[in-house]
Design a protein that fits this description.
heterotrimer; A alpha+beta (about 350); B mainly alpha (about 270); C alpha/beta (about 260); B: mainly alpha; MetI-like fold; 14 helices; globular; disordered N terminus; C: D-Maltodextrin-Binding Protein, domain 2; D-Maltodextrin-Binding Protein, domain 2; 2 domains; 10 helices; 10 strands
């Protein structure tokens, strides 16, 4: 029983057009920047928004197929965890969890007993009678999760489930959520703009930009071989598109670089910023990729400093430099080099550090 | 030290620009009340109070205002929902029309009711010939007139509450398998309860003080259609002292009822 | 059809003025003022008059202004008791015309009141008399819809006197707050009959028919008029009273259904 969604939604000038499948037991993450159409996709699948064209079905059970079929949200076997949880404030935690069971006709006492068991699975027995306002962010998130799971839905939809949490609780709750998802044997669709959430929780990533799928694959695949600027930024890689001939790649955005394994035709070249080294003087020795650059930005990260470089316009170059180059160096190196914006220096990259793959 | 004290005083002080008109506004509302109380013939008050007519009029007022409020709740809450949530064409116009009874002089409202529900009215003539029902000059007529005048207060208040309520909670309920009616009962209604209470209180108060539409549509017959405001008006013609006594009674009863209700409801909601 | 009914009904309730003065033609003849010289008075004359005089006094005010160029008549119509209270509270008034001697008596600082018209009760029934009302005895019939004025207002007091005289216990469905309200309910056909003044029947003659009855003579209502002693325009006030008592005034008043004193 596969969830199959061919979503075409037009709203004003925005157009969503993407295809998705989710297999039983699979967690698929819909990853993309704000305004990419992720939430629209989730709302369409949940039945809160009819698609303009296309089809949503669970195997041969059609949920939405304009103009004939539209099953409203309450008649789809789904569970949704909303970004800010939307727990009913006038009901206690256990009543919130029992709500879906009651709506499906379960007797009140039975529903409450079952809801209490669900709360127990996430360690919230003591909070069963608390009102949502009295719960912490992490607790509210867990109540929202079991409220969605209590009806044993065929499809679980998570809309930015960790976005409302602060950084310190996020780590813990994310790991816990991962455990619950791995125990759930239905289909899970996770919508997020946080690459870490997607990488940790999902079996497969679908990257969406401007309402369209730009890349799809397992977390490792996506992390190593990004195909768009946005994905490269997400996973923290330098990414260039160009045309290869042997070990030389002429980049579409200007400049060229040398790769380790010969290739030909249109390719992507990716490498981590840590593979770039910076020198005050032109180094002598092996690296084939050496460019005179100017520092255009410096950004402090946890343990490294990310330096943004652009080609040095005044230098005579034997090799054209890429238009933008990111380099990660240690804080000590920043001090040694006396790095300041506008400073001229030389950047090198070992060809063996690059990943080349066809477009 | 002195600096800190001064800072604290500045922080706690209300801006004079607001305080002055606020107190003026309060005085404006309260002074006529004080005038009424000062004029009341306190020495003869008990004997006038426990007369048959006063008891009758007061009882009738309370029964009619409460019944009218119930009718307004049953019809007004769904109407407010329609205005706030449903995609009806010409919603702006409907909303404006709902407030008509607020703008209409109540006497004209009473005439309009007569033209529709009266013995020869559009609907009234059929009620009369088919079912033998005639609303004018009956207690039911008083309730109809009061409900007509008071309903906008409820509708406007509830519609405001509905607009302020987050519709995404209703979506959450839908994803949990709740149909529209269940969602309305178990999610929407509880979330707008304070607005409904506020609207019902306004509605009840308006119905209790209603005069013009009532006397025009339901007439004035002691024990059947003479509510307190009608009794007050007629007493004013001959014996202003009695009018003052009746007004004070009406006032006292309504203040007590509203205070109790408020206490009950607000504490029940928390 | 419905809309016309609404308009008529609204007019009957909200603006009896419009109904009653439409038929009169404004008399522009300056020859009518009798005793006082036209040139002697000026300024504004403020007149407080009973609500039942709305139509006639509006007409008389216009005629008076036509007869005395430059003079303005300001009219205020309301229930006589309310007017009496307003005058005693210091309202600036030159002339007071009351619908009952009782209310005139309540006013303290005034000249000698003169009765200028009389009004008596009449049975008002909807046009065509659908319930076949014949006389006062029908008012004791429980099955008929009957409206009377409340005892607290003058027409109700007069009705009470009439019923006592006729030894009839009426069975009203409503005790109206004033005579116009009773008349409205007859006009709309909501009641089968009501006791109102003859002038009211005349003012609504398109919608109601009047039935005279002998007992009405036992409760004839005198309308006194007087100038006020603290008037701002005593000459103007006196001239207006004289005008009301003149032949021209009598004509306007009797056309409206009032009887001469």
């Amino acid at each position: 029983m596969t969830l199959y969604a061919d979503l075409k939604v037009t709203r004003g000038s925005f157009e969503l057009d993407l295809e998705l499948t989710v297999e039983p037991g699979e967690v698929v993450a819909l990853l993309g920047p704000n305004g990419a159409g992720k939430t629209t996709a989730l709302r369409a699948i949940a039945g809160l928004l009819p698609v303009t064209a296309g089809q949503i079905r669970l195997d041969d059970e059609v949920w939405d197929e304009p103009p004939r079929v539209f099953r409203s949200a309450d008649r789809r076997p789904i569970g949704v965890v909303f970004q800010d949880y939307l727990l009913f404030n006038h009901l206690s935690a256990v009543e919130n969890v029992a709500f879906g069971l009651r709506a499906r006709g379960m007797e009140k006492r039975v529903a409450r007993a079952e809801a209490a068991q669900w709360l127990d699975t996430v360690g919230l027995t003591d909070q069963a009678r608390s009102r949502p306002r009295a719960l912490s962010g992490g607790q509210a998130q867990r109540v929202a999760l079991v409220r969605a799971l209590a009806t044993q839905p065929s499809l679980l939809l998570l809309d930015e489930p960790l976005a409302a949490l602060d950084a310190s609780t996020k780590l813990h709750v994310r790991a816990e959520l991962g455990q619950h998802l791995s125990r759930y044997d239905g289909r899970t669709l996770l919508v997020t703009h946080d690459p870490l959430d997607a990488m940790v929780l999902a079996d497969r990533l679908v990257i969406v930009e401007n309402g369209r799928v730009v890349q799809e694959g397992g977390p490792t695949e996506i992390a190593r071989r990004p195909r768009t600027e946005y994905v490269a930024q997400l996973v923290g890689l330098n990414l260039y598109r160009g045309v290869a001939e042997g070990t030389t790649v002429v980049l579409d955005g200007g400049g060229s670089l040398t790769i380790a394994t010969p290739s030909s035709g249109p390719v992507y070249v990716a490498f981590p910023p840590a593979a770039v080294s910076l020198y005050p003087e032109r180094p002598t020795g092996t690296p084939r990729n050496t460019w005179p650059m100017v520092v255009s930005g410096i950004e402090q990260h946890a343990h490294t400093v990310r330096v943004r470089l652009t080609p040095d316009p005044s230098a005579t170059q034997d090799r054209a430099a890429p238009a933008v180059l990111l380099a990660d160096i240690t804080t000590a190196a920043v001090a040694d080099l006396h790095l300041t914006p506008g400073q001229r220096l030389h950047a090198t990259l070992k060809a063996t550090e690059t990943q080349t793959y066809p477009t | 030290m002195s600096d800190r004290r001064r800072q604290r005083r500045i922080g706690g002080r209300l801006p004079l620009v607001l305080l002055l008109p606020a107190l003026l506004g309060l005085a404006f509302l309260l002074v006529p009340l004080i005038g009424l109380l000062a004029q009341a013939p306190w020495s003869t008050l008990p004997s006038r109070l426990f007369s048959e007519e006063v008891g009758q009029a007061l009882r009738l007022s309370l029964v009619c205002a409460s019944s009218a409020t119930v009718i307004c709740l049953l019809l007004g809450v769904p109407l407010a929902w329609l205005l706030a949530r449903a995609e009806v064409p010409g919603r702006g116009l409907i909303r404006a029309l709902v407030t008509v009874p607020l703008v209409l002089p109540p006497v004209v409202g009473g005439v309009a009711l007569l033209l529709v529900l009266g013995r020869r009215g559009l609907i009234g003539q059929h009620l009369d010939t088919w079912f033998g029902i005639s609303l004018p000059f009956t207690t039911a007529g008083v309730i109809v007139a009061e409900a007509f005048v008071a309903m906008p207060f409820l509708v406007i208040s509830v519609e405001g509450a509905l607009r302020a309520a987050d519709p995404r909670y209703e979506e959450a309920a839908a994803t949990l398998g709740a149909g529209r009616w269940l969602t309305f009962r178990r999610v929407t209604l509880p979330s707008i309860a304070p607005g409904i209470v506020a609207g019902a209180v306004l509605c009840w108060a308006r119905a209790l003080g209603e005069f013009g539409a009532t006397i025009t549509f339901a007439g004035n017959l002691p024990g059947r259609t003479t509510t307190m405001p009608l009794a007050v008006y007629l007493a004013l013609e001959t014996d202003p002292d009695v009018a003052v006594v009746l007004s004070v009674v009406l006032l006292a009863v309504s203040v007590v009822v509203l205070a109790c209700l408020r206490e009950r409801w607000i504490s029940g909601l928390r | 059809m419905f809309r016309r009914t609404v308009l008529i009904a609204l007019a009957a309730v909200a603006a009896p003025t419009l109904v009653s003065c439409g038929s009169d033609t404004p008399a522009a003849s300056p020859s009518s003022p009798s005793s006082s010289s036209a040139s002697a008075i000026s300024g504004t004359v403020t007149v407080f008059a009973a609500a039942s005089l709305t139509g006639t006094f509006t007409q008389l005010g216009k005629d008076f202004e036509a007869a005395h160029p430059g003079v303005k008549v300001v009219l205020n119509f309301a229930g006589s008791s309310a007017l009496a209270q307003q005058i005693n509270q210091g309202a600036p008034v030159d002339v007071f015309a009351s619908a009952a001697p009782k209310n005139m008596d309540q006013v303290t600082d005034k000249g000698t009141p003169v009765v200028f018209v009389k009004n008596k009760l009449e049975i008002a029934v909807p046009k065509g008399n659908p319930a076949k009302i014949t006389g006062l005895t029908d008012f004791a019939d429980k099955d008929r819809k009957i409206a009377l004025c409340a005892e607290q207002v003058p027409c109700g007091a007069a009705a009470k006197k009439v019923f006592e005289m006729a030894k009839i216990t009426p069975q009203p469905d409503s005790l109206e707050q004033d005579v116009k309200a009773a008349l409205t309910k007859v006009g709309l056909g909501e009641v089968d009959a009501a006791l109102v003044y003859k002038t009211d029947v005349v003012s609504a003659k398109d919608k109601v028919d009047g039935i005279e009855f002998p007992e009405a003579d036992s409760a004839i209502n005198d309308y006194p008029i007087a100038t006020l002693t603290n008037a701002k325009n005593p000459d103007g006030g006196k001239a207006f009273v004289d005008f009301v008592l003149s032949d021209r005034g009598k004509t306007v008043l009797t056309e409206a259904g009032f009887a001469a004193p």
